[in-house]
What does this fold into?
Amino acid sequence: MPEDRLPSRAEDFSEWYNQLVLRAELADYAPVRGCMVVRPYGWALWEAITRELDRRFKATGHVNAGFPLFIPQSFMEKEKEHVEGFSPELAVVTIGGGEKLEEPLAIRPTSETIIGHMYAKWVKSYRDLPILINLWNSVVRWEKRTKLFLRTTEFYWQEGHTAHATAKEAEEETLRMLEIYADFAENEAAVPVIRGRKSESEKFAGAVCTYGIEAMMGDGKALQAGTSHNLGQNFAKAFNIQYLDEQNNQQFAWTTSWGLSTRFIGAIIMVHGDDTGLILPPRLAPIQVIIVPIWRKEEEKAAVTEKALQLEKELQTEFRVRVDLREGLTPGFKFNDWEMRGVPVRIEIGPRDLAARSVMLARRDRPGREGKTAASWDGLSHSIGALLNEIQAALLARAKQFRDDHTQDPADYAGFRNAVETGFAVSGWCGDAACEEKVKQDTKATIRCIPFDSPGGKGHCIVCGKDASQKAVFGKAY
It folds into this structure.
């Protein structure tokens, strides 16, 4: 394989992903094992994600705040399931300022405990509820096996934390935020997702119920793309979040938490990318349009460059656009470079285009001549806007088709085992954790979720053959 070519996805999907992240300059390995440096291009993509999510959060009444990185270790031990779930991943500080600390400090793996402590101070009356707070921060979970964006020791995310007066309000909030994630995934990232409930063994440590959105990657594996947890009164009781209701009775609050992280960048890469590099959905792409001026003779350079800069100025009021004026590089090199980085539309302009008062548009999702069309200078902004919308829709449709083509409803356990090797199996499950564990041991697949649209009626468990009133989505996962 030539050094300048990525491994194909069919050859080695994992290595294709690793090299693409590095060569597209999204991230790099940090000196501390398992940590990553998010490079400017990758951070610009994360900023686009945060912009769209933050807009949705604020539209539903949520506000942003900041909470400490350090949490007293005793806080982590107040909720039994929570401490059991996170203790293997916990990083703990025992020395500060050259002295041993009286109480060790956990570096936050998530913020439910410190949130619970503060909400207990702030909530006194039903008038103080609901509290709808979101955090943009990083957390630390000491992972043994890491992969850039998908699973790192420190990662960036948002975590929402809310408190409510009733169980009904908490459940409504949990489902509302899941739908916000799903809407973002499909309409901004062009990543189709399955909405559903997690099994007891897969739910968040300390939650009453966890809901998630599951996406299929380009190798058929699943990625948990976002989760929303109904915490019931577990954390309220652990941290004494109580309020006086309208009848002047003392009540425990009902709380939720929900989060989506930089692993979603990994989802975008693996759902849309091809053997040439990234394919970024236009609505999130840091650069939507790249203009590449082309000339052969030095005397052609000034006029072509001038027009390219003029087009950039005209288009940048509506699009994220840049002109590639790098010296000493051929147009072909620039084409390949921007294709690697996944820019949705490339504008090529040369001396002939000046004469014809037109440009050549190349769409990233359709490489080669198939994706090229000439466009007049007149109405160019409209042409590009329509093309970007077409690309956005095409990416979502293609990803849905891939998921459908790699989802099976097998007739027996042998067929089930084959199905989870290449994608999802949607199969009956009796609800017994023993059957869930057998699948995990036999195939390394897990229940990704029980879809909200799971067919009702009687069926049979794919594992034991007993009655099953629900179907679950099984798959191998990142």
